Amino acid sequence: MADSPLPGKFSLQWSVVDTAQKALSCDRIDGVTMTVLARNLAVDGGNTYPFSCSTGMGESELLVAGTYKLDFELGSAAFGLLATAPQQSSVVIEPGKVTQLEPVVFQVEATGALALNLSAGAGGNCAAMDTISIALTHASDGACEPIVLSVGAGATSGKPASTYTINCAAPTDVPCIETDQLITATAVASDQYTIRLRGKKAGTLCRTNDDTIRVPPLGMTLTRTLNFASTGATDC
Fold first, then answer.
1. Angle CA(22)–CA(28)–CA(29) in degrees, nearest 5?
2. Between the CA atoms of 87, 90, 93 and 94, what dihedral angle is there, to the nearest 10 degrees?
3. Architecture of 9-107 per CATH?
4. The overall pTM is greater than 0.85
5. Ranges of each domain in the chain
């Protein structure tokens, strides 16, 4: 009986770019796993070979030598399938060798949207504070994200619609934003952020919030209520 051919391996490198072809880190878009779906053309079915997105390169486990069709997927634990890359067909995995694949590039829409409400608890926000300021910084490096927020009109409170321009170096105090006013933004760079809210009453800092939020990729929207905590200041 003839000996079975030795198995082989494949190796590859991959990268992630946005729609403008600018390089993206996996962390920005919550990219967790890069998966190769390998189908041996001589047999039915196939196998998957997962790699950590952040490594940017990898080598497979042993697989049966033969001719393969390979598909590539980039996935997120939070957001599911982020992107696919062009298929590589008729790839020959030689016995006892490591076959180098063509470089793989994933293109991901790396922007999302925000839909936020603020809450200081029972009694409403404006009973607890008369001004609010907002800052938004990237959790990775502390860089400011100077976006313009749209503040909707309050259906119950009657508060008017407005906008808020983020300036992290000198956050602007604006009239209190009520619980029924939806704060929105679109085309925000996907990433994990710290949002800093400061509520004052007659100039005294009374309420704060320093939540971590993640702006999703693929144009998806983060919908969330941000809850203020009391500073315990006596003048509040």
1. 95
2. -160
3. Sandwich (2.60)
4. yes
5. 9-107, 111-230
